Amino acid sequence: MSESFDVIVIGSGPGGYVCAIRAAQLGMKVACVEKRETLGGTCLNVGCIPSKALLQSSENYAETLHAWKDHGIVVEGVKLDLARMQARKGEVVGANTKGVEFLFKKNKITWLKGEGRIAAPGVVNVAGTDYAAKHIVIATGSESMPLPGVTVDEKRIVTSTGALELDAVPGHLVVIGGGVIGLELGSVWRRLGAQVTVVEFLDRLIPGNDGEVATQFQRVLTRQGMKFRLGTKVTGATAGEDGVTLTVETLKSGKTEELKADVVLLAIGRRAFTAGLGLAEAGVATDERGRVKADGHFATNVPGIYAIGDVIAGPMLAHKAEDEGVALAERLAGQAGHVNYDVIPGVIYTAPEVASVGKTEEELKAAGIEYKAGKFPFMANGRARAMGSVEGFAKLLADKTTDKLLGAHILGPDAGTLIAEIALAMEFGASAEDVARTCHAHPSLNEAVKEAALAVAGRALHI
Ligand code: FAD
Ligand code: NAI
User: What is the third-level CATH fold of 3-144+271-339?
Assistant: First the structure.
């Protein structure tokens, strides 16, 4: 055995690297195994960070072209330098991944470079060397879900990874899947000039989100020029000399037809990644979707082996993975780490943004929970008007009897920041009235949240 650790974390994504840092803070000797050239996992390398860099750059470009004239700013000769935009994205990613490397050094965490395999309970093999660990944490994340008949080459038929690397704006981008990745990356390329068609299996976008938000979101994206084929299934895609030919089937009519695209983005979800980990040999149980089975405290069925993040059940979100990493490290140190799964916000970083926390109206109805809803449009918010971002609304849901906040759903400017107020309120068990009686600065977008809280009691002031 080459070296012994208290904790070996396999995978350095937001789940793994945060777990490693917290365990080190709590006095444990920690190693983290990562096979990628850089730390930070999917999120920092090919996920959250590069996508948000391109979303910001493409929004700046689209605003310069379309929005500034209205503000009395005349800009002429606007040009797209995609190579620079991509290089900037690379710089943003590099600064973040190096930041994690710095944090590892600061916290004396050993980076074991290479692919990690659980050789036996308490033993991790990395590049032919065995390391001993009291606790092993599986944080190997997820990968893009494949679709039979659609072969990814990351050039013309791409996953999100290829869609972040395109070196030319496609004439026509067809996106398979009207979920978070499809709409964020579809927005990037639409803003840069591509025609974008989203083919979605269901009869709505962003399943799992509030239905009313989804409907209005689709209208907004349609106004931005995106086209939607809902209730439609892709049955195959073939890349040829002149682009990609897709065969699609309209579910209701059973009618099949061909679609032509320059680039196809496959974004129909992600699945747990466990290849090469040696789970079967180590006796670690997985569920019917290939996710590592973990109990409420992240323990697998094998003593001393734990799992967190995308590789276990739950929303595939970086902050969910991070919070699980912290909670697990604290439990390993004998503390009472805990994640409140009822209050995990979700944000779609389009323009406007979509943000949600807690239950949707659909979920409350299905559970038979009586609730009151309060809604306020950004059109009636002074700050949103001044910004020229008046699309969307804030909606709060509260228990009909107790007024306790149960959920919030926002489509609008900076919704991803606004949702934090409600997440905090829910964490403290606040009522809608608590939010309504809190003094909010004027003029601010947060006033729309306050007005939605007032609307729960039927007493919004500005509508
Ligand atoms: P990951 O980040 O997937 O990290 C796992 C790491 O483990 C990888 O680096 C992998 O190389 C390594 N690994 C795997 N197996 C081994 C092995 N055997 N040995 C060594 N190393 C191994 N979430 C958000 O909350 N907000 C966003 O804005 C957002 N945007 C996204 C955009 C895109 C395009 C994508 C694809 C995802 C996005 N996500 C976002 C989701 C987010 O990236 C994931 O939820 C998050 O990265 C999960 O973290 P994790 O630590 O579980 O795993
Ligand atoms: P998703 O689950 O958000 O959306 C997939 C969509 O594809 C769904 O609408 C689904 O109905 C549809 N679909 C499934 N099979 C299909 C088929 N055969 N044909 C057409 N449509 C089909 O998954 P997505 O967008 O791939 O994202 C994966 C994960 O990454 C998500 O769970 C998300 O949480 C995470 N992510 C989070 C981001 C954020 O927080 N801002 C950004 C990007 C990704």
Answer: FAD/NAD(P)-binding domain (3.50.50)
